[in-house]
Amino acid sequence: MTVLLIHSHYGAAPQGYAADPGVLVVRERELTAGHFAAATGLLTTTHLDQIGLLQHQPALQALLDRGGRWFFNGHILREFVEGLGRYVPLHQPRRADLAMTRLFEHPIFVGIEQRSLEENKGVAGFYGRGHNPLPDGAQAVNGIGPNLVPIDWDWALPAGGRMFSHAGNDLGGMGGESGDGALLTRRIIAWCRGELP
Predict the structure, then answer these.
(1) What is the top-level taxon of the source organism (predicted)?
(2) S-S: 130 plus which of 67, 89, 184, 192, CB 3.0-4.6 Å?
(3) Which among 161, 136, 197, 158 has a CA at the least distance from the CA of 59?
(4) Tens digits of per-residue pLDDT, 33-69?
């Protein structure tokens, strides 16, 4: 089971993903429909060229239609899949607007304290400052602020496949390359492979 990681920035791919032999790292400019056809899962980072990905939309849809999974990091600005809405930033957020609440015990987050993700060196907001609108039928996983805006959600698509949206910085990088960050990276890969529900 191959997980395709679209490498969208200069420099090396994130170590936790690149070190896994089941993750195929492909630079965005070298991406072909064949890469999608050979994959069972897809990982994209906040650096994704969303306009560029639109040219691969049929291959992406085919991956999902055959039951593949897509872990999306960042702000959705294009409707790659029917039912997706555009990212909504928080308006002038205060500290209370960045407080995180677990809304659903998703296997990616089991045993990980929200507080360890909410702040980085005592500063809140690195996890995310807005949300990708929850599609019909999606399960909100983590919410932020008093309105519990769904910053993370998991969606079983009507036509097949699954999509996990994290509307912030790359989730695998939260908590560093060890500890919770390393655990999140391993679980994200496992989820993309279909090894976690």
Answers:
(1) Bacteria
(2) 89
(3) 161
(4) 999 999 999 999 999 999 999 999 999 999 999 999 9
Helix extents (H) in the chain: 15-18, 33-38, 50-54, 57-65, 114-118, 180-193
Which class would CATH give 3-193?
A: alpha beta
User: What's the gap between Cα 197 and its chain centre?
Assistant: 15
- Work out the number of other CB atoms within 10 angstroms of the CB of residue 111: 8
Residue pair 149/141 in contact (Cβ under 8 Å)? The answer is: no
Return the pLDDT at 115.
83
131-156: pLDDT as tens digits: 999 999 999 999 999 999 999 999 99
Residue 25 bridge partners (DSSP)? 5
Q: What are phi and psi of 52, to 5 degrees?
A: -65, -35
* 142 beta partners: 102, 152
Task: Give the number of other Cβ atoms within 10 Å of residue 118's Cβ.
Answer: 19
- Among candidate residues 195, 20, 5, 6, the one with its CA nearest the CA of residue 108: 195
Contact 10, 172 (CB under 8 A): no
Domain ranges, ordered by start, for the chain:
3-193
